[in-house]
Input
Amino acid sequence: MFAADLAEMLSVDMQKEGLSGRTLTLKLKTTTFEVRTRAVTLQKYICSSEDILKYASKLLKAELPVSLRLIGTSTTQYGLNFLLYENSSIFIKFSMEKGPC
Output
């Protein structure tokens, strides 16, 4: 299934960069050259292919039936997890809720 392949590719790219996102966007281009963009903002950060597929499938099913020529997925609203201050044994860390990536 192509949606599973898209979810896996996006997940791999996100994990390489250490990213988790809260907004998942699905972009569809129809055979009549119409462009449809649908998005969902989630309560939690996601980066796994299973989560991406779950939410992308829901967005796609809402558009069916449709004849497609292109389909794509992306994420935004990335979680931050970085070091703000380091002084010998003192570490202060700023962290937004982050998924398993």
In short: The two ends are 24 Å apart (CA to CA).
